Amino acid sequence: MTTTLKGIAASDGVAIAKAYLLVQPDLSFSKSAINDVTKETDRLQSAIAKSNSELQQIRDIASKSLGEEEAQVFDAHMMILADPEFTGAVKQKIEDEKVNAESALDDVATTFINMFEAMTDNPYMQERAADVRDVTKRIMAHLLGVELPNPALIDEEVIIVAHDLTPSDTAQLNKKYVKAFVTDIGGRTAHSAIMARSLEIPAIVGAGTVTTDIKADQQVIVDGNTGDIVVEPTAADVAKYQQLAKEYAAQKAEWAKLRDARTETADGKHFELAANIGTPKDLAGATDNGAEAIGLYRTEFLYMDSPELPTEDDQFDAYKAVIEGMNGKPVVVRTMDIGGDKHLPYLPLPEEMNPFLGYRAIRISLSRQDIFRTQLRALLRASAFGHLRIMFPMIATLQEFRQAKAILDEEKAKLVAEGTEVGKYEVGIMIEIPAAAVLADQFAKEVDFFSIGTNDLIQYTMAADRGNEHVSYLYQPYNPSILRLVKHVIDSAHKEGKWAGMCGEAAGDPIMAPILVGLGLDEFSMGATSILKIRSLMKRLDTAEMAKMADKALNESLTNDDNIKLVKDTLK
Ligand SMILES: C=C(OP(=O)(O)O)C(=O)O
Ligand SMILES: [Mg+2]
Hints:
Elements: E1 3-6, E2 8-11, E3 14-22, H1 37-65, H2 68-81, H3 84-97, H4 101-117, H5 123-144, E4 158-162, H6 167-172, E5 178-183, H7 191-199, E6 203-205, H8 210-213, E7 219-223, E8 228-231, H9 235-256, E9 272-277, H10 283-288, E10 293-298, H11 300-304, H12 312-325, E11 330-334, H13 362-367, H14 369-382, E12 387-392, H15 398-417, E13 425-431, H16 434-438, H17 440-443, E14 449-452, H18 454-462, H19 480-495, E15 499-502, H20 512-519, E16 523-527, H21 531-538, H22 543-555, H23 560-571
Parallel strand pairs: 3-4, 4-5, 5-6, 9-10, 9-16, 10-11, 11-12, 12-13, 13-14, 14-15, 15-16
Antiparallel strand pairs: 1-8, 2-6, 3-7, 7-8
Helix pairs in contact: 1-2, 1-3, 1-5, 2-5, 3-4, 4-5, 12-14, 14-15, 20-22
The site of phosphoenolpyruvate has 10 residues, from strand 10 and helix 18.
EC number: 2.7.3.9
Subcellular location: Cytoplasm
Main location: cytoplasm
């Protein structure tokens, strides 16, 4: 029977394919005493052998579809399977204590994981804990006779159905086969959603209980424009959505004609449309979509994709590739923003009740200066190769900015003294904490630019977790409170002769962009796939009319919805 589910539209486009449930099975077991030791060690042996051949197969496919580097993690897993200190210890425990294999495996794995995690001075060994966990899960699944999902083995078109997708899960999906994804939890600005937009696949997040409502292999339609998920569609549904997919493709082809066009309003005013990227690989998408700049390079993915802290040279190579790749166009590189929902296995952070209010971004950089200075040196060296803008995330106070800037100046002086070439660069901050937005007039005297991070600015202003679907109604970019903060930031920058951009998701939103044009925002940075849509929209706007509309939006409208209506009516 056909059912329609609803979630939060997180990435545009329409997809029709069968469901692939990326759900962790229940691996609980109970401890029991055994009589037949040989039978139990045979069960263990067979689970290890099955795990090994599965890993071999995953490794082969992963190396072909994702690249040799991504595949190497599976070598590490196979090494653990072959390590007598680990699997030998499980066998020994079964023999000595006459317990079932599941319980012996769990005990030994826990000992190893605790041991690795305690090695706080050796991040490489700490990371092995995650490998032991993964391998243990695989052996356990075979012992219990349940199946683990293996997304790397997908070799036909599917729609991924998951409770949530971490940034690293999303990075492992092969775009050739993964046509869309839907998740139980998350909001429009969760990193999985941002990732979907950069992969250019439709996505719906925060859809409630899709992992139980949708069964494996059921046919599913995902409409990433509206947030509708149709399960077991009728032939008429399929025809309707095929038509919508066709129209969307035609619309995209129309926008594509604007690729090399200058971004101009109807009255000839230019606005800079930039792309947000996560890795140098995203550069192609940015230039294909006509980006005039990179307005946000989120460097944390460099750290997340690496098994240990990336070296200065690794970072230099990545930054240089992006800066050179943009051929003199500006590139805003944001220093590491780890914490919140982004974790590094080799940099254990304290468990926090409110990670988004905790130890993240510049707060980590200022206390772990070894990590920060390495990144700054790599950036300063890369500045010689084009137009660099360095940006600090999550700045709350002037002192934090001054401290970060002083460290940058120190590293520059050291490099210059060593005879290393350093180019020109600007230094700016993200405005994503209300404290900094309110004091933007003070900050504007000291920084070269602002980039407003609405994803965080909205969550902190509204006190509503950006990834929590229960409070996603409070993600209100057009709420007059948010707009007034944005106006204050833009006006403060202009008063000091500085520029203000926006790199939060709101910059690429067709309702928000006209208001921002009216407020005089200088630079709009967004997922690359939104650029042409916004360029096309801007061609229709008159800046004086938008300024009047923005004034109403700030001073006459009372709610977010009032402003949606105001923009729609004005653009009619
Ligand atoms: C762009 C932003 O940063 P991130 O989404 O990486 O937190 C933001 O907060 O708006
Ligand atoms: Mg942010």
